[in-house]
Amino acid sequence: MFEGTSRLFLIWLAVALFAPASMAMAQNADGIGNLKLPDISSYAPPKGETPLALGGGGAITLSAQLTDKGADITRGIVWRVFKPEAAGDGKLPMVASAHGGSAVFQLEPGSYLVHASYGRAGATKRITVGKDARRESLVLDAGGLKLDAVLSGGVRIPPKKLRFSIYEGTADANGDRALIIPDVEPNSVVRLNAGVYHVVSTYGAVNAVIRSDIRVEAGKLTEATVEHRAAEETMKLVRETGGEAIADTSWSLLNESGDPIKEAVGAFASMVLAEGQYTIIAKNRDRIYQKDFTVVAGQNQEIEVLATEASAIDPEEGAD
């Protein structure tokens, strides 16, 4: 399920997301609170002259559950109520909204569309409001996803150098996948509808990337940990082994095929690289130097490029 030499550890925790706050998924505000809700472009804002609560209508109580037989979700839901007929601009008029757990709306009799959002999970249902009070429930068919990554031997990766992006599990005719959530922090809980998602884990900013398909089950928290076969490399140009780094150096990194993949400027060039063979080229003033090196997974190292005739290359080499 992984590309390359990665391995994926899936831990299915038989725990509902509405469990007590001491559990990993329960009401994890830090994990999901900063995520934006999905855009809903097919509605119009409610007009100010129309009251949202109408005394002559019937009260309707709305609740949501993660699974068909699950308990009511008590917080974190965004409710939106729409009229089912599009307005003149082609958008559905929104007549009411609420945040929290179960919600009570006082609406005039008629038919409505109700949308419940819970993180990135959501469901829509058509309801009918009459004169008498009634209840309606929406089953979100949703679960949670918690992501992390390690290096060889289980070494932890600094969270600031690690990020995840979640895509739809199915690619289109061109092989592209729709991005659902970018830049997800490790160990944060993301609420999603049940299904398969394509997850991209990026360590650093060059080529240490792991891709995997992960299934989210309704009412459960799925924990997935990937292993990056990579290491952090620091390059410096010196006049002698163990010498001081030479300032004002321009760096170009080439992969095993000779393709440029990273450039930097400064006395040091630090970057995370996937394991493999590379060539680093350092330019200082009018002189160019190069060195071949190998990245071994989990072994960070400092690479010295000697500013000597032996490592110098002809700047005209390869020119027409």
Descriptive overview:
It is built from one helix and 24 strands. With 320 residues, it is mainly beta. A five-stranded mixed sheet has the order 2-5-4-7-8, with no helix packed on it. A five-stranded antiparallel sheet has the order 19-18-21-22-24, with no helix packed on it. The longest helix has 4 residues, at 29-32. The radius of gyration is 27 Å and the shape is elongated. The relative contact order is 0.15. The model is unreliable at 1-55 (pLDDT under 50).
Provide the fold topology.
Blueprint (H helix, E strand, L loop, with lengths): L7 E6 L15 H4 L10 E2 L13 E8 L11 E6 L9 E9 L2 E5 L2 E9 L2 E9 L4 E6 L2 E9 L11 E7 L10 E6 L4 E5 L1 E9 L4 E9 L4 E7 L2 E9 L11 E5 L5 E6 L2 E7 L1 E9 L2 E9 L5 E6 L5 E2 L7
Parallel strand pairs: 2-5, 3-9, 10-16, 17-23
Antiparallel strand pairs: 1-16, 3-6, 4-5, 4-7, 7-8, 10-13, 11-12, 11-14, 14-15, 17-20, 18-19, 18-21, 21-22, 22-24
Q: Characterize the biggest β-sheet.
A: 5 strands, mixed
Q: Which structural category fits the helices and strands?
A: mainly beta
N-to-C terminal Cα separation, in Å?
Answer: 45 Å
Count of DSSP H/I helices: 1
Q: Tell me the total number of β-strands.
A: 24
Structural shape: elongated
Compressed to H and E, one letter per element, the order equals EHEEEEEEEEEEEEEEEEEEEEEEE
Give the mean pLDDT. Answer: 84
Question: Beta-strand percentage?
Answer: over 45%
Query: What does the radius of gyration come to?
Result: 27 Å
Task: Please give the share of residues in helix.
Answer: under 10%
Oligomer: single chain
* Neighbour order of strands in the largest sheet: 2-5-4-7-8
User: Regions with pLDDT < 50 over 5+ consecutive residues?
Assistant: 1-55
